[in-house]
């Protein structure tokens, strides 16, 4: 993964711009959701949770990579802690940053799954939406998703003494790695397969639910073209805003699936013994860049969000 000075500078510039994009976009999202009464809904709470997870990535995960790469360029030597894994020193930054990145990634996936469930109920069972989806239940689910996601992120170190965290010179991020044992295959790596298994289970379920919801929306649109709806019929159909929101969540699902798939491929390949240095860099940073996509999707797909954001700016 050697590169020229110009490439290193471009890489650092990309990381710095990504930090600003993540912070700016998600702070705008939080300001709109928390500062506008229209968004004080279960869907708004979930979007706020997603924004907080992305914001944490921009505040802690990416800056550590910027520090390590700038230090390398200035001193022509990497920081001392990058030469060791978390089992070799008493304190290692990756002991904190690694689980933060993993936990926030899992939070994002579970939140998109919950958003999909919320929208599917609004589309498929509009009369039951307000009784089933409440702000209290949504808040409880958000707390559980954060606790469960971060427990999953630290579980490799809890359940295996062979797994450590290290700053990877290929991905330029904190990654899970073998601690004292360097042979392949190791049973410890099988624990890491829980990550893509968990993620793809939720993403697969999210895709299926989105397909069902969008199919229902398409059927509803066809009926509106051929039938004159009565007042009674209209009360049992999803509203235009519910349909628009369902399509927005579908777009979020596609974006996150596209950004996460390279990481899943890399983890499986790593378990099988493939290093894939250059591929790991692109895989991890595509996933990190996903933290600034949500606000772009909201701005394009949600007119009310766009108007509120415009007023704030």
Tell me about this structure.
- There is one protein chain.
- The model is unreliable at 229-235 (pLDDT under 50).
- The chain has a two-stranded antiparallel ribbon with strand order 1-2.
- It has a single domain (5-222, 239-312), classed as Up-down Bundle (Rhopdopsin 7-helix transmembrane proteins), CATH 1.20.1070.
- The protein is globular, with a radius of gyration of 22 Å.
- α2 (42-75) packs parallel to α5, α3 packs antiparallel against α5 and α11 (293-301) crosses α12.
- The protein starts with a helix and ends with a helix.
- With 313 residues, the chain is mainly alpha-helical.
- Helix content is 74%, strand content 4%.
- Keywords: Cell membrane, G-protein coupled receptor, Membrane, Receptor, Transducer, Transmembrane, Transmembrane helix.
- Belongs to the G-protein coupled receptor 1 family.
- Pfam families: 7tm_1 (PF00001).
- Its main location: membrane.
- It is found in: Cell membrane.
Give the helices and strands, then pairings.
Layout: H1 5-35, H2 42-75, H3 94-124, H4 129-132, H5 135-159, E1 163-168, E2 173-178, H6 187-192, H7 194-226, H8 231-235, H9 240-271, H10 277-289, H11 293-301, H12 303-312
Helix pairs in contact: 1-2, 1-11, 1-12, 2-3, 2-5, 3-5, 3-7, 3-9, 7-9, 9-10, 9-11, 11-12
